[in-house]
């Protein structure tokens, strides 16, 4: 071996093996240059071929880059086809091709805006007397600046014409319909969206756009129950130009100078006569305004209202009233509604069959009072019966509705597109709370388990949340056993003792997954259900610090069961509540039986979404009762999940009977003599006799529990 080593050493020089001939310098430069050119070519080809579709035309839609006068002129022959009148039977599953939208990680539709064109008839007369209005320009510009927009027509799910049909009064009906039919992707209006705020015309004033439009969706500002295609069309507000010209500072809710105010000028004489009669009966509580006859017509007079020679600034005067009347005019939709909401005045809407704006997602009962037109004589009595606190909440909600959904053409357009987006991607749709509650709580970090996701959660496995006080030895045994579960992603210890610090880091068990200790500010049982930021998994295992009898394979099996039923509570110890016919009241059973109506959260899997609901949406009286008595948080969670999902929990049976002979703690909450009594009392207070089946959804029970539990 020594001789071989020496021989090899002799055949190598400092320039490499002597057996390999040296390449001439000019040949080496040639090959290096050739290799570099080929490599750069491959890189450039790959970037061009596989780069995302963002290599598109940079000429986004917008009047900033293109003037209406520079748009190409298109002549409409008289013989051009006319679309059919809107199909009243259209629904999303019959007249909309959802397959155009496809699946994308952002769950967002793509909207294409047709290029600007000037349509004229054979003799050169435009199809519209106003061209492109400022409002429609603002709308299209907002769409083009949004995340919905695409300028690649092949990727579009929804098509928006650049033909302005906001105001039917300015349109030539036949020619406008012909222009729509000429659009390259019209296809009988499939997946096309038209915006119209002022439909119909004299003398009948139809409540939907009269322009024949085939199967196109209509975002309309004056729908009635006869013309509105529920789940297909979108009811939008009539935009008020004053929104852009007049800024009203938000006013704190509370009593106002006037109780009822009417500010509309062109209302039917019968309605005005009835309002004048109410004015005579109730005096200064009602202010009845009309247009000012002594002022010249113009923009200035539109911002004034008068009553017997007194001149008031409009819409500022609306802020001086608790309730503001919104009566139907020639059209059902009135811009007055937007002005009233901006003023924080509760609208009193008297327009039979009117489809309120965005009523598909907005809860108008929280921001308005809707009264049948025949009940106008009783309006004052009806409004007087509303509690002051509720009036203040409605004033606050009315202003928030305006800020979020009515304040600009951009707000109206984005809300419309979001509603359509929610229909196409229902699993990613906004919730009732997100549409109707001011954004005090960030829900973006959690997904609802009530719809199956198309993509896996951010972090697989589950997070174990252990609520503890000071049982260190038992806690460490629980941590050690849980750490053996293959699907454990993180272990979170909620330290509920404010008078004692948790053990030092060196004393905690050494485990393979992250272990985080969270110290609470108050000793409350509800802390176990708080939506901690450290919980990144969808699945949560709530477990007590003395549950040491469950093995790692039993916990793993429970997690696998939860994965198949992610919208339910999946737990081990079961309990039963049932109606005792002899006693005439609810009974709580902790003994082992063959019937189960709930599982205890001392060892249970659930979706972290329910942490948010428990913390932010649970009726406050229930949480206060639980924290005051240090009991029944598991009962409250069972009622919450059952009420939301309408589904019973799932019990997983361990190998051993779920008893705790190893538990020697004498200070446990469940060992208190009053523990079972309180649980029995809470069940009796929070249950309804009408629900006597063991698989009840507990919706009635949860409503009963919103009252203070004894």
TrEMBL record:
Q: Which GO terms describe its molecular function?
A: glucuronosyl-N-acetylglucosaminyl-proteoglycan 4-alpha-N-acetylglucosaminyltransferase activity; glucuronosyltransferase activity; metal ion binding
Among Gene3D superfamilies, the record links this protein to: Spore Coat Polysaccharide Biosynthesis Protein SpsA, Chain A
Membrane topology listed for this record? Single-pass type II membrane protein
Where would you find this protein in the cell? Answer: Endoplasmic reticulum membrane; Golgi apparatus, cis-Golgi network membrane
What cofactor(s) does the depicted protein rely on?
Answer: Mn(2+)
Glycosyltransferase as UniProt keyword: yes
Coiled-coil parts of chain: 261-288
Q: Compositional bias (Polar residues) at which positions?
A: 687-703
Principal localisation: endoplasmic reticulum
**UniProt function note:** Glycosyltransferase forming with EXT1 the heterodimeric heparan sulfate polymerase which catalyzes the elongation of the heparan sulfate glycan backbone. Glycan backbone extension consists in the alternating transfer of (1->4)-beta-D-GlcA and (1->4)-alpha-D-GlcNAc residues from their respective UDP-sugar donors.
Name of the protein this chain belongs to: Exostosin-2
Species this chain originates from: Salvelinus namaycush (Lake trout)
**What's the encoding gene here?**
LOC120049131
């Amino acid at each position: 071996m020594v001789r071989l080593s020496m021989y090899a050493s002799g055949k190598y020089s400092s320039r490499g093996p002597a057996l390999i001939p040296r390449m001439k310098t000019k040949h080496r430069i040639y090959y290096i240059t050739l290799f570099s050119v080929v490599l750069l070519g491959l890189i450039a080809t790959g970037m061009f071929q596989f780069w995302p579709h963002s290599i598109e035309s940079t000429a986004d839609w917008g009047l900033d880059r293109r003037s209406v006068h520079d748009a190409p002129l298109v002549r409409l022959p008289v013989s051009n086809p006319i679309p059919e009148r809107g199909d009243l039977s259209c629904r999303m599953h019959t007249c909309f091709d959802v397959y155009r939208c496809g699946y994308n990680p952002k769950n967002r539709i793509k909207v294409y805006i047709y290029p600007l064109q000037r349509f004229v008839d054979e003799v050169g007369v435009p199809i519209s007397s106003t061209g492109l209005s400022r409002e429609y320009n603002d709308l299209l510009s907002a769409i083009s600046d949004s995340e919905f927009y695409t300028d690649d027509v092949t990727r579009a799910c929804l098509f928006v014409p650049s033909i302005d049909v906001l105001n039917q009064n300015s349109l030539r009906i036949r020619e406008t319909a012909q222009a729509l039919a000429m659009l390259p992707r019209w296809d009988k209006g499939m997946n096309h969206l038209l915006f119209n705020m002022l439909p119909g015309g004299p003398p009948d004033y139809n409540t939907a756009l009269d322009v024949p439009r085939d199967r196109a969706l209509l975002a309309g500002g004056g729908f009635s129950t006869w013309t509105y295609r529920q789940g297909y069309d979108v009811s939008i507000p009539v935009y008020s130009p004053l929104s852009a010209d007049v800024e009203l500072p938000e006013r704190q809710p509370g009593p106002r100078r006037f109780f009822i105010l009417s500010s509309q000028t062109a209302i039917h004489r019968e309605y005005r006569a009835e309002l004048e009669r109410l004015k005579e009966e109730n005096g200064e509580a009602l202010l009845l305004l009309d247009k000012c006859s002594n002022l010249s017509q113009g923009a200035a007079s539109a911002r004034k209202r008068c009553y017997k020679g007194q001149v008031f600034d409009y819409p500022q005067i609306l802020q001086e009233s608790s309730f503001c009347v919104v009566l139907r005019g020639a059209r059902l939709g009135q811009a007055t509604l937007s002005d009233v909401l901006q003023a924080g005045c509760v609208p009193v809407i008297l327009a039979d069959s009117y489809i309120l704006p965005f009523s598909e997602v907005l809860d108008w009962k929280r921001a308005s009072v809707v009264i049948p037109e025949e009940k106008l004589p009783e309006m004052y009595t009806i409004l007087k019966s509303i509690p002051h606190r509720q009036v203040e909440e409605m004033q606050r909600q009315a202003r928030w509705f305006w800020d979020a959904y009515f304040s600009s053409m951009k707000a109206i357009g984005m809300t419309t597109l979001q509603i359509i987006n929610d229909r196409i991607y229902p699993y990613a749709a906004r919730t009732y709370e997100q549409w109707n509650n001011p954004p005090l709580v960030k829900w973006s970090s959690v997904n609802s388990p009530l719809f199956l996701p198309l993509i896996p959660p951010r972090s697989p496995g589950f997070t174990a949340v252990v609520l503890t006080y000071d049982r260190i030895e038992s806690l460490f045994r629980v941590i050690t056993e849980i750490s053996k579960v293959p699907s454990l992603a993180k272990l979170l210890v909620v330290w509920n003792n404010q008078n004692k610090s948790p053990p030092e880091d060196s004393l905690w068990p050494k485990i393979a997954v992250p272990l985080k200790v969270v110290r609470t500010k108050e000793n409350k049982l509800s802390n176990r259900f708080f939506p901690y930021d450290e919980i990144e998994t969808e699945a949560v295992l709530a477990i007590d610090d003395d549950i040491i009898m469950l093995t790692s394979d039993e916990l793993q099996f429970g997690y696998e069961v939860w994965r198949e039923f992610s919208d339910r509570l999946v737990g081990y110890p079961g309990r039963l509540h049932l109606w005792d016919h002899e006693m005439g009241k609810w009974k709580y059973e902790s003994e082992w039986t063959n019937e189960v109506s709930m599982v205890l959260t001392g060892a249970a899997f659930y979706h972290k979404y329910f942490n948010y609901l428990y913390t932010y949406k649970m009726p406050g009286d229930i949480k206060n009762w639980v924290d005051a008595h240090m009991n029944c948080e598991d009962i409250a969670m069972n009622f919450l999940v059952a009420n939301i999902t309408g589904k019973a929990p799932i019990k997983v049976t361990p190998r051993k009977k779920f008893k705790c002979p190893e538990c020697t703690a004498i200070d446990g909450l469940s060992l208190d003599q009053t523990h079972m009594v309180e649980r029995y009392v809470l069940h009796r207070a929070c249950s309804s006799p009408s629900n006597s089946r063991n698989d009840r959804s507990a919706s009635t029970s949860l409503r009963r529990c919103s009252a203070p539990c004894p």
